[in-house]
Write a structure and sequence with these properties.
mainly alpha; 63% helix
């Protein structure tokens, strides 16, 4: 028994002088907080408040018929708005694809038109056309009295309501 006391006493002494590393450091115990003593009236008021708070929580958790109808209507409206949004997004995507397709067609037609115009320019000699018009058809350049000028206000075309005056 004396040997046991000597070992425990040696252990206690060694525990006092031992360095502890890491998160194994012991925490000091604190004294419990003192709760003030309530009177009987305060205790009754506190219990009544707790009961009324519990009743209010229970009433808040209950869903009556009007609330369920309101939530159902709100859910239906949200679903309809989401559906309309998805439908509009889909139609916008389709329209964008159509616009892209039409722009591609316009680009191809412009390329074809430029190629045809280039082909006409290379096959046609304007000097030959001028000679043919003057010699075979008897055409000539107009004299200064034969030229009539028309003014156009703001549009890029003109409607003819009568015949053009002749000579």
């Amino acid at each position: 028994m004396g040997d046991y006391n000597r070992r425990t006493s040696n252990k206690r002494v060694s525990d006092r002088y031992t360095y502890i590393q890491g998160n194994t450091v012991r925490k000091l115990e604190t004294a419990p907080k003192r709760v003030p003593v309530r009177t009987r009236e305060e205790e009754l008021r506190l219990r009544e408040k707790q009961r009324s708070a519990k009743r209010n929580r229970q009433n808040a958790l209950l869903m009556n018929k009007g609330y369920v109808i309101f939530l159902t209507a709100a859910t239906i409206v949200c679903a309809m708005v989401c559906g309309m949004y998805i439908h509009m997004q889909a139609s916008m995507t389709i329209n964008m694809k159509q616009v892209s397709s039409l722009e591609t067609q316009i680009s191809e037609l412009k390329t074809d038109n430029d190629a045809a115009e280039k082909r006409l320019d290379t096959t046609m000699n304007l000097d030959q056309v001028k000679d043919k018009a003057q010699s075979d058809l008897g055409m000539s350049y107009p004299a200064s009295g034969q030229i009539k000028y028309y003014s156009v206000d703001s549009s890029d075309y003109m409607n003819q309501y009568g015949s053009i005056p002749g000579k």
